[in-house]
TrEMBL record:
<dbReference type="GO" id="GO:0030036">
    <property type="term" value="P:actin cytoskeleton organization"/>
</dbReference>
<dbReference type="InterPro" id="IPR002189">
    <property type="entry name" value="CapZ_alpha"/>
</dbReference>
<protein>
    <recommendedName>
        <fullName>F-actin-capping protein subunit alpha</fullName>
    </recommendedName>
</protein>
<dbReference type="GO" id="GO:0051016">
    <property type="term" value="P:barbed-end actin filament capping"/>
</dbReference>
<dbReference type="InterPro" id="IPR037282">
    <property type="entry name" value="CapZ_alpha/beta"/>
</dbReference>
<keyword id="KW-0117">Actin capping</keyword>
<dbReference type="InterPro" id="IPR017865">
    <property type="entry name" value="F-actin_cap_asu_CS"/>
</dbReference>
<keyword id="KW-0175">Coiled coil</keyword>
<comment type="function">
    <text>F-actin-capping proteins bind in a Ca(2+)-independent manner to the fast growing ends of actin filaments (barbed end) thereby blocking the exchange of subunits at these ends. Unlike other capping proteins (such as gelsolin and severin), these proteins do not sever actin filaments.</text>
</comment>
<dbReference type="GO" id="GO:0008290">
    <property type="term" value="C:F-actin capping protein complex"/>
</dbReference>
<comment type="subunit">
    <text>Heterodimer of an alpha and a beta subunit.</text>
</comment>
<dbReference type="GO" id="GO:0051015">
    <property type="term" value="F:actin filament binding"/>
</dbReference>
<comment type="similarity">
    <text>Belongs to the F-actin-capping protein alpha subunit family.</text>
</comment>
<dbReference type="InterPro" id="IPR042276">
    <property type="entry name" value="CapZ_alpha/beta_2"/>
</dbReference>
<feature type="coiled-coil region">
    <location>
        <begin position="53"/>
        <end position="80"/>
    </location>
</feature>
<keyword id="KW-0009">Actin-binding</keyword>
<dbReference type="GO" id="GO:0030863">
    <property type="term" value="C:cortical cytoskeleton"/>
</dbReference>
Length: 123
């Protein structure tokens, strides 16, 4: 299950006189992923795109398109990242069995001499 919060802030600056502008933005994402555990991602992605201004309508359409493309690309990258983590990364972190190659009986944990049993293994 995935839950999260998405915030983005965009500003348009005109560095000088003429037909040029710069669109700057920041996307801030907080994602909470839980599958028998608890994983959180906090990320910030900054953008800066130059824009050539020909008229007001073109400027508005280009701003809309650049913001839409940037946010879509970033959301796709986050989804792909979580899919990869789910399929490979998290499974690689888990061990099917402990280093001792057998299941631990947690009711008898005080009877184990784990220090001696671990000496032949290099982790």
């Amino acid at each position: 299950m995935v839950n999260g919060k998405w915030r983005s802030v965009w500003s348009l600056s005109f560095p000088g006189m003429g037909s040029r502008a710069e669109l700057k933005g920041a996307i801030k994402v907080q994602v909470h992923y839980f599958e028998d555990g608890n994983v959180q991602l906090f990320s910030v992605k900054d953008y800066s795109k130059p824009i050539t201004i020909t008229n007001e309508k073109q400027l508005a359409e280009e701003i809309k398109q650049l913001i839409e493309e940037s946010e879509d690309d970033y959301q796709t990258a986050i989804c792909d990242n979580y899919q990869t983590m789910s399929e490979t990364t998290f499974k690689a972190l888990r061990r099917a069995l402990p280093v001792l190659k057998g299941r631990l009986d947690w009711n008898r944990i005080v009877n184990y001499t784990i220090g001696n049993e671990l000496k032949p293994y290099k982790v």
